[in-house]
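REQUEST ID: PR-0412
SUBMITTED BY: lab tech R.K.
PRIORITY: routine
TASK: structure prediction, single protein chain
INPUT:
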Amino acid sequence: MRADQAGPADGAVVTVTGGAGPGTGAGPLVDVRRSRRRSRTVSAYRDGDRTVVLIPARFSRAEEREWVERMVSRLDAADRRRNPAEDDLLERARELSRRHLDDLARPVSVTWVDNQQHRWGSCTPADASIRLSTRLQGVPGWVLDYVLLHELAHLLVPTHSRAFWALLESYPRTERARGFLAGLDHVAGRDPEAEADDAPADPSTGPARGAAVREDDEADPARSTG
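STATUS: complete
OUTPUT:
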């Protein structure tokens, strides 16, 4: 390796703007950290508003740029999966309906809301709208898919009856996702058995709104899911 190809010394931290190279353009900040203890592996993680990329000390400048761009792209893709935009949520919900509900549930909108502190999701069958709590942002994708599927099933069956739970049987991670959400409730000091309506009631939809539990419902151990 020629001297003009070599990167900074072991342990040096180079701050990259925009993910392309030091001091090039506006964009997210990236700290590149080199180590002689790394032979081939590259890793990256978020640290506040920065991305930290760990690379072998032997990497050239060109290899550094290549791997910074690659790792930032991977982290960005993971962020989009965990915190999808609302248009992406709608398409994701429609795909789940096609895959697990024979395309019977036809959502019109899926939105993030911050006024649901006791529910993970809710829906209005009358206008086929679904709302997801912003508390779900950052959960694994399979947990988010479960909550979406849960609300899609409510578009078809508004109660937590046996017919409702039968709609979720084809989703393989239902029980695991419910346990994950119950754990989040426990850590936050919330009682998953306490049903609360965080959003103003919509009188036009009556008892079918969201997951409002009625006397003929089956018990729902993950009731805050919607």
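NOTES: The CA atoms of residues 119 and 224 lie 4 Å apart.
REVIEWED BY: pending
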